Every structure is written in structure tokens, then in C-alpha cells.
Amino acid sequence: MCGIIGILGRDPVVGKLVASLKRLEYRGYDSAGVATLEGLRIECRRAEGKLRNLEEQLRHCPPAGQSGIGHTRWATHGKPTEGNAHPHATESVAVVHNGIIENFRELRAELERNGADFKSETDTEVVPHLVESYLKNGYSPQDAVQASLPRLRGAFALTFLFKGHDDLLIGACKASPLAVGHGNGEVYLGSDAIALAPLTDTITYLEDGDCAVLTRTTCVIYGTGGSVVQRETSKSVVSSLLADKANYRHFMAKEIHEQPTVAGKTLTHYLDVAAKRVAMPMALPFDFNSIQRISIIACGTASYAGHIAKYWFERLARLSVEIDVASEFRYREAPLRRGDLAIVISQSGETADTLAALRYAKDQGLHTISVVNVATSTIARESESVLPTLAGPEIGVASTKAFICQLMVLAVLAVTAGKERGKLSKIDESNLVRELIEVPRLIAAALLAEPQIEKLAHLMADARAAIYLGRGTSAPLAFEAALKLKEISYIHSEGYAAGELKHGPIALIDEAIPVVVIAPYDRVFDKTVSNMQEVAARGGKIILITDAKGASEAAVDTLVTIVLPTMVATFAPMVYAIPVQLLAYHTAVARGADVDQPRNLAKSVTVE
Ligand code: F6R
After folding, report:
1. Which is nearest to 476 in space by CA: 552, 559, 406?
2. Given ligand 1 and candidates 343, 348, 370, which is best to mutate, with the most ligand atoms within 8 Å of its CB?
3. Which one of the listed residues 16, 22, 163, 603 is annotated catalytic?
4. Per-domain residue ranges for the chain?
5. How far apart are the C-alpha atoms of 488 and 460, rounded to whole Å?
6. Would you call 38 exposed, middle or buried from its count of C-beta atoms within 10 A (0-12, 13-18, 19+)?
7. Is the pLDDT of residue 18 over 80?
């Protein structure tokens, strides 16, 4: 889960390396480093912590060199120290790596027996030592890399820089993305088109097992068998501009406030607004009538979007849905029926578990649809159909606007399925579309609760733990709300289906634990109120999120009641998500946490 960049340039390269690393920080930010070729020497600079620490170090004494590699790290093996930061270098070769070398222990033992001197605790360091061992035996850099690659087990995207070879960069990948960028007399390697966007829009994506040997004027790609292969070169549409915070203090705040706009944008992509009809922008390669079961597969917040969509598909299209977290899907050997449908959901489109699950689903003969935010991502490229979420770049690590747009797309898809399967009449369809069209306005109205939530956050900030409860579609929203709070404020929080409370979690309730109840006035409202009574009876402090009718009917003492606009309940999660996002955000700010880059996390999770 790291970001990689490599450049053969025509000017001193360090500024461009750092600029690309800035764009890659979403892949990890616990340490960073660069290596350049200075004359015959490899000059390596590394720093613990955020990229700004490396920038500071480089500002005082920038390395020269027109060829270089860079890395921003999310630690897997070894603490996030300067010593474990990449690049890792030996006498003759420097390497940056994304992924995990699973057999690093055996390789390290073997290389140490042969005299290699390891300096870090990382799995990566075996790679330069292995390549160096071949170089010492007279192999050329290319042959040394090609001899080393089959010995590496696991997932990797690697970029190599060789002492004394100013016009050579080698990249290789397996189960981890790597792209070649073609410039004017320059050439680049990067984790993705986002990193390369300010340098070039001409991109060749490497495929699994590829090894690219680059000079400033040539690019030769070798496939797994070692013979030369041709890979398509395409124009990327990724913006070269770095997203900014506008007038907001954090990207997360900006992204929360963008939600009415991006929800509307996503919606109009999938609806014929004037006709009040769903309108997929392209034909799907199957008929929903031939589908017996949908498998929805995703991780984290994206998986909670899937949980909510399960209610919609089951109710509106009478289609059964199985939900899997991507890291479990492949391993539980579920019986899958060829011709059924897998929907994978991912903001980044690079999540390793989700990508592996997508590939597994394809191998099992399922149709695959991906709901992705990054249109150039691997998941988007590899799925049979892509339904883009038009949230725009999401920079804050905690997903907010991408989640809402995922829900939008899934809602439209569920209505499409219901219509195609004859479960929804034309009138049902147009009623549901009318409800969807209202959602962006309702999100904007929900944002008006911010001052009240900001005040509440000061109380929440002192809590040792928090519980979120909901029923129906509010249950998965409670899971998402708890994830949002814990990941950015570090307050332990859990979400439960409200009816589950009495089966164990109620033992946690005391005066010190805020219990946030998400309860629009819907057909399960009374049941939720009963669960709220159970909390109140045990002294729990209740924060109720509801609408006007719910507020007047609840008849339970609450610490705070947040009243949202009245709406038809079906698509309520898209509106009720707003206060829980704001509560997490303001609580994290009140606790002085690093909201956009919380500890231990990364925006794109490219290791399993
Ligand atoms: C939490 C969050 C994560 C992601 C998860 C999947 O706020 O953002 O839980 O949802 O890591 O990431 P994507 O959607 O990129 O596959």
C-alpha cells in the first residue's frame, strides 16, 4: 500500500519526484524517500513521518541527478522508521516496492548466509540484495532483475535504479499496479495515472508478470515467459491539478459539503430526470431476469454501502443478495452459479482484496459490475461493466462523498433491476425516481444541522467509547457511522442492529457511553424506540437522529435530538449519513486528531 514513482528526466529530477509523491500520499504516509543517480553514485534520502519531513530535508540539500525513484510508505513489515523507509539500496541498485514479498524470510536467510548485510526489518530489502547477487555474478541489470523476479512470492510493483546506468529504469509487477508514462524525451513509472498526471497523459498499464525496461527513448515490455509483449498505450483523463481544500480546514469537511453537488451529478448520469425514469448510460451485458443471486463484494465503508443496497435489491427487485467483505469472499468457497452477478464496490478501484475478489468472481463465471470512483483504476479496467460514481477525487482518508455516490448508483441499479424483473411498475419507477431526485436537496438541508453537531462533538470528544444503533437500512448505516468515528477520532465505537443490543452489547451501556440512535420515522421506528427505552433504562446517554415526526413520537429522554428533514424512508441512509459524518469529523477536530490522514491508515489499500 505504498506509492511508487520513477523518472528518467532531462533536468534534475528531485522536484518532480516529490511532486509525484504528494499525489501518491493517499497510498501511505508513514515515511517517504527518494534515490537519484549522482554521477556514478546512488544518493538515497529518506525520512520518517509525513512527506513534508522529507521535503524539509531535501530543501536544505537537494540531491542532483536526472534519474530517480521515490516512494511513500504504508508499513507492512517493520516499523515506520527512517531505516525501514524506501528506497532500499545496495552498492549497485536501489529499489522501491509496493506489496508484500511473502517468502522474504527464506530469501533473507539465504542472502545473509552469502554475506549480504541487511539494514532494515522490511520484506523489501531482499529484492536489492537478490538483484545485487546476480549483478556480482556478471549479470546485466536487466538479466539480474529477470532472474530475481521468479524467486519472489507475493504481490509486488517494483522500480529499480542502477548505479552507473543513467539511462535505465526497470519496473516489474505482479498483483499490484504499475504504469509506464511516456514523456517528451523522458519516461516514467508510477503506481497509477494519478501520480503521472502532471508529467504525461500517455500511459501504458503493465499487466501481471510484466517487466518493463525503459530508457529515455525506448520502452520494452517482457511478459511472464520472458518474451517481448505489446501492451496498449492510452490517453489518461486524470486531472494534473492537485485537489485543494478551498476554504475548508480539512479535505474531509470540503468533501462532506460537496455531497449535494456530487450526489446530483451522479444521479443525473443515471436518470432521465425529465421522464422520471432510470436510464443506465450503457446496456448491461445480462438480463436481471436471468440472475438468481447477487454477490456484493467490497471492503470497509464501500461494503456498508453494499449492505444498504442489499435492502434495496431485495425489496425493490425481489433479488437475493449475499454480502461479503472482499478479504473473505475468495476463501470461503461459496457455491456460485455461473451467469449470476457480482457487484464490487470501491472508491479507489485499487483495493487489493476487492480486486482479487473481482478476479475470482470472473473465474467462477459471474457477470461483474464495478461501482468505482477512479475511472482509470484496475478494478474499473478489469470488470465487465463499470458504473462510475462521479464524486470527484476523494482525498480525506475517511470516505464520505464516495459513499453517498456509491449509494446513489446502487439505488438506481436496484430500481433498474426491479423494473426489468417486472417487480416495479412504471408508476413505482417514477415515484422512486422522484424520491431520488429529492435526495441532493435533502442532503443540503441535513448539512444545516452542523452547528448543533459541532457543539455535540465537544461532549463526544471526551467519551471513552460510543455505540450506534439502527434498524433496517439504518443498521448498516450505524456500522458505517461507528467506523467513521473510530477511524478519525480513535474513540472505540461499534454499530449494531438495534434489535441485537439485548443479545450482548447492552452490557456495555452506562452513563459514560453515548448511544447514537439513527431512526427516521419509518415502519420500524416503534421497534427502535423500544430499544432506545432499554438504553435509557440503564442510564445510557442517547443522541437521537430522526425527523420531526420521530422527534415528537419518541417519548424518551435524549441528550440531544438532531431533527432532519422529513422524507420517504427508502433512501433515507443517503441523508442520515450526513449527521454521522459531521459528528465524526467535529469530534476528531475537537480531539486534535489528524482528520485527513489518520494514524495507521491509507486511502488506497493495495495489500491483502
Ligand atoms: C473508511 C474507508 C475505508 C474504505 C475501504 C475500501 O472511511 O474509506 O473503509 O472504504 O478501505 O476502499 P475502496 O473503496 O477504495 O475499495
Report:
1. 406
2. 348
3. 603
4. 3-235, 253-424, 446-592
5. 13
6. middle
7. yes
- Nearest ligand 1 atom to the CA of 302 is 10
The domain at 253-424 falls in which architecture? 3-Layer(aba) Sandwich (3.40)
Q: Which residues, including other chains, have CB under 8 Å from residue 142's CB and lie 6 or more apart?
A: 170, 213
Mutate to test the pocket of ligand 1, among 74, 251, 256, 299 (most ligand atoms within 8 A of CB): 299
- The CATH architecture to which 3-235 belongs is 4-Layer Sandwich (3.60)
Query: What pLDDT, on a 0 to 100 scale, did the predictor assign at position 241?
Result: 74
Protein residue closest via CA to atom 5 of ligand 1: 300
- Mean pLDDT value across residues 222-232: 94
Q: Which atom of ligand 1 is nearest to the CA of 397?
A: 8
Of ligand 1's listed atoms, the one at least distance from the Cα of 301 is 10
158 Cβ contact partners less than 8 Å away, ≥ 6 residues apart: 4, 95, 96, 97, 127, 171, 172, 173, 178
pLDDT at 243 over 80: no
Helix (H, G, I), strand (E, B) or coil at 344: strand
Q: Is 603 a catalytic residue?
A: yes
Nearest CA to ligand 1 atom 6: 299
Residues 404, 574 contacting (CB under 8 angstroms):
yes
Predicted pLDDT of residue 202: 96
DSSP at 402: H
**Residue 238 corresponds to which amino acid?**
V
Per-residue confidence band for 162, with pLDDT thresholds at 50, 70 and 90: very high
Give yes or no: 44 in active site. Answer: no
Give the H or E element holding residue 406.
helix 401-420
Ligand 1, pocket-test mutation among 255, 351, 394, 601, most atoms within 8 A of CB: 351
Q: How far is the CA of 605 from the centre of ligand 1 (A)?
A: 8
Report whether pLDDT(534) > 90.
yes
Query: What pLDDT was estimated at residue 469?
Result: 98
Residues near ligand 1 (Cβ within 6 A): 299-302, 346-348, 351, 354, 398-399, 483, 487, 604-605
Radius of gyration of the chain (CA): 26
Question: Cα angle at 312 between 308 and 314, to 5 degrees?
Answer: 110
Q: Give 171-195 pLDDT, tens digit per residue.
A: 999 989 999 999 999 999 999 888 8
Q: Give 473-535 as a DSSP string.
A: THHHHHHHHHHHHHHHH--EEEEEEGGGGGGTGGGG-STTSEEEEE--SSTTHHHHHHHHHHH
Please give the distance, rounded to the nearest whole angstrom, from the Cα atom of residue 22 to the centre of ligand 1: 20
Residue nearest to atom 9 of ligand 1 (CA): 300
CA of 491 to the centre of ligand 1 (A): 19
Stated pTM of the model? 0.90
Beta strand 367-372 pairing with 541-547: unpaired
In words, the CATH class of domain 446-592 is alpha beta
Q: Report d(CA 22, CA 102) in Å as an integer.
A: 28
Tracing cell 510508505 back to the chain, one arrives at 73
Q: Is the pLDDT of residue 240 over 80?
A: no
Structural contact between residues 44 and 4, judged by C-beta atoms closer than 8 angstroms: no
Mean pLDDT of all residues in 301-310: 98
Distance 129 CA to ligand 1 centre (A): 35
- The two domains 3-235 and 446-592 share their CATH topology (first three levels equal): no
